[in-house]
Write a structure and sequence with these properties.
By secondary structure, the chain is of the alpha+beta class. 24% of the residues lie in helices and 45% in strands.
Amino acid sequence: MRRGERILQRTVALLRGSLRVRAASRFPERVLNICSARGIPFRDPAFLGAEELAFSIDRRDWRRLRAACADLDAQVHIERAEGVPFALGRLRRRTALLAGLALCLALLAANACFIWDLQVEGNGAVPSERILRVLAENGVRRGTFAFSVDQRRLSNRVLPELPELSWLTVNVRGCRAHVVVRERVPKPEIVNESAPTNVVSTRDALVTEVRALDGEARVLPGTVVRKGQLLISGVVETRGVEQPVVGTRWLAGKGEVWGRTWYELSTLIPLWEEVRTPAGEPRRSFAVLWGENRVKFSIMGTGNLQAGYDKIINRNQWVLPGGLVLPVTWVTETYVPCDTVRAERPRAEAEALGGAALRRYLASQLGADGELISARTASAARGDWLLVTLSAECREQIGETVPIPVER
């Protein structure tokens, strides 16, 4: 017999009620023969001796077995009874326990009709706390009756208060509400492509490449330019054969100008750091969150703590098997006394911290297209501080489009 079939038979036997029976007779094998003859199914037979036998039957076959064994002059008695009918029979005599079980089932059924957990999905720029706060102001919070949520009405109230969102819905599954949102795509800025513009330099650089898409280039590769110098002009003079200048055209100067740039950045890093170390035994206090209510169990010595304690909060929400969320959260607050000690920081570590900070700042200045060619870090002590200097050579796009003021 396969394992799956054995498990299925065992489950059915427990639901119907199973009896483990012991039979005593001079010929115990005859008990099994008469069970087969009268259609009484039995399981797991085991000989306990020359005149004793044990096997399992269903609860409903007990009377038939006892009547059949009376004709054989065999003694049978029940060793063990198990299954759902016997468990319910024992509960009938325990009124208080049965009432408590019924009350728990009623509370669980009522608990499933309320929202006890909210989760926000699909948001990036808008914080989840802000979305939950607006929902709470419009009646959707912990403890809200799940069947009272009107999707259309809620969306019409919440979206005007959250202009960054274009769509919102609340899907209630059991005790958990899934708030699904979609953020609004910002409207692109309208650029007048025909407005006259120039391209000027954003910093001092050595020009390496000029790509003039419209307008007239005013610099060549190998030219050293200063910050604010004209690179591509949107004012173009049209020259004829007989006249030096026929007219002036106003164009939208566009293009890219690449150049080598040099940076020298500095920052101060302390040669010391403040380290917090435990200075005693931690203290704990406990609390129970029931929906929006809080019941705190303060431990002696945690009421009015002075400064110098680190507070660690651990929340454990109770969840039944199957994912049924209960409106109960057990909160443990741990208070650890700490002392602040000033420790010496190695110079190499301080230089590495300063260099990393300067490189991050340089990367933010270069942008996605910029490229770091070479870099060198130097440091000099100034008392309790270390001056870290980063000298870097880069390649970046130095052109910036600026409008040309035109009088109308």
